[in-house]
Design a protein that fits this description.
This protein is 41% helix and 22% strand.
Length: 308
């Protein structure tokens, strides 16, 4: 199992680290445009192998896509990160060109790969990959919902004063501050609806805090977060590589599912060795349907900025 991660910055390096530590891949290739950067990150990570007990080989390369050849899964984290006060949508001008070039180069060397897009604005960058590569739709996946759901569960556990292992919840919709749709009606604490423990007002606050989870961290850190995004990517990669058939909310190209078409947006999917193996239909409340429709309109508006 060979995994390529394009972009050796904080998110890409964290992603490579978590994949290596889980020890399910034979090789991880880190690639970056900055001279020596990926090689240095790979060497640093390999020097943790004996300490962290993994045998995954991590190699780095400066913009040499031949080193990525025959990758089973490719992850695109490259692009400029958010700065305080920026929305994910404001990154589109620069990141669209990067994602188009990177995805094309990856598919050229690994025509049977599964592509995971992390670069922002993520739903639109995933849509761009669909429009500019030859990959079938089940092999192009946008990573947003897995991260947003992890942040949702963090906020739920905080509100419940419960261990996070007791909590389950999911966020669908667009990967944006306004577009996320936290499914509070489906959230549970050990199979019991969280509405049994939390007031409607507190649940609404949890949802609001979840939506600005990335912006909150960007304000605190001065740049985008990396630990949770890297862990979220590694979860998707492992589900695919190990054919786990796990359900994650991912950005996928819809064809009338959830009443939406010709856009990529976060919905629950089953991930296995073929990539997206099934889109799962979850019943939504009237309010959630309304928010999902509004989210889709926001994604389509951003897609309209693409020069296809």
């Amino acid at each position: 199992m060979k995994i390529t991660v394009v972009g050796a910055g904080a998110v890409g390096a964290s992603c490579a680290e978590y994949i290596a530590i889980k020890n399910f891949a034979s090789e991880v290739v880190l690639l970056d445009i900055k001279e020596g950067y990926a090689e240095g990150k790979a060497m640093d990570l390999m020097q943790t192998a004996s300490l962290n007990g993994f045998d995954t080989k991590i190699t780095g390369s400066t913009n040499d896509y031949s080193k990525t050849a025959n990758s089973d899964i490719c992850v695109i984290t490259s692009g400029i990160p958010r700065k305080p006060g920026m929305t994910r949508e404001e990154l589109i001008g620069i990141n669209a060109g990067i994602v188009k070039t990177v995805s094309g180069s990856l598919v050229e060397h690994s025509p049977n790969t599964i592509l995971i897009v992390v670069s922002n604005p993520m739903d639109t960058m995933t849509y761009l990959a669909h429009k500019t590569t030859s990959l079938p739709k089940h092999r192009i996946i946008g990573m947003g919902g897995a991260l947003d759901s992890a942040r949702f569960k963090y906020r739920l556990a905080e509100a419940l004063e419960a261990p996070i292992s007791d909590v389950d919840g999911m966020v669908i919709g667009g990967h944006s501050d306004k577009g996320m749709v936290p499914l509070t009606s489906h959230a549970t604490r050990n199979s019991i609806k969280v509405s049994e423990f939390l007031s409607e007002e507190r649940l609404n606050q949890v949802a609001a805090d979840t939506k600005v989870g990335g912006a909150t961290l960007t304000k605190l850190l001065g740049t985008s977060a990396w630990y949770a995004p890297g862990a979220a990517v590694s979860g998707l990669v492992q589900a695919i590589a190990c054919d786990q058939k796990k359900i994650f909310p991912c950005s996928t190209l819809l064809d009338d599912e959830y009443g939406l078409s010709d856009l990529c947006i976060g919905v629950p999917v089953i991930l296995g060795r073929n990539g997206i193996e099934k889109i799962v239909d979850v019943p939504l409340s009237d309010a959630e349907k309304k928010h999902m429709a509004e989210s889709a309109e926001g994604v389509k508006k951003t897609n309209g900025l693409l020069e296809l």
